[in-house]
Design brief:
The chain contains six helices and no strands.
Length: about 100
């Protein structure tokens, strides 16, 4: 979640001089520039975290809500990352917003 927030806040953090791990790593002036020049590296970071989450989740013994936890960690976090990355975090299609 911290990395998703850092990606989302990139431009604001750079403008205000706040710490941002992506800015520290890549030093680009805007999120768009950072993703254009270093998108593959940023994707690698996120995919590595998601893979580690999936592997570690296998080792946790659940007594209830296993499906909910899997949904959040294995599907929700990657989906939220994609929405932030594409700049469409507030644009959820109505058919996807319905409860299933």
């Amino acid at each position: 979640m911290y990395l998703i927030d850092a990606l989302d806040d990139y431009d604001k953090d750079v403008k205000k001089g706040n710490y941002n791990p992506f800015y520290e790593a890549f030093g680009e002036k805007t999120r768009a520039e950072m993703l254009a020049k270093n998108g593959e590296e940023a994707d690698f970071v996120f995919k590595s975290v998601f893979a580690a989450n999936a592997e570690n989740l296998k080792n946790i013994r659940f007594y209830f809500n296993h499906d909910l936890t899997d949904n959040i960690i294995l599907r929700g976090l990657p989906a939220a990352t994609q929405r932030v990355k594409c700049g469409c975090k507030d644009k959820i299609r109505p058919e996807k917003a319905r409860l299933r």
